[in-house]
Write a structure and sequence with these properties.
Blueprint lengths: L14 H20 L7 H18 L2
Pfam family, one: PaaA2
InterPro entries: PaaA2_dom
Protein name: Stability determinant domain-containing protein
Length: 61
């Protein structure tokens, strides 16, 4: 599936919408970079998400 996207076509409805999105995104990145909490090990994150997924799937039945 080799889709070639036109770089001139924007994903946004207007330049104001793009600017608002970029400001929101930059703020989220800056907040994440400034977070002083200790990082959680990858294995712990995976285990936590696995439990959440299993609980959600159990509710579906």
């Amino acid at each position: 599936m080799n889709i070639i996207f036109d770089p001139i076509v924007s994903e946004f409805d207007s330049s104001e919408h793009e600017a608002a999105y970029n400001a929101w995104f930059r703020a989220k990145i800056e907040k994440a970079c400034a977070d002083q909490r200790s990082a959680m090990p990858h294995d712990q994150v995976v285990a936590r998400l696995k439990k959440r997924r299993e609980k959600r799937e159990a509710k579906d039945y």
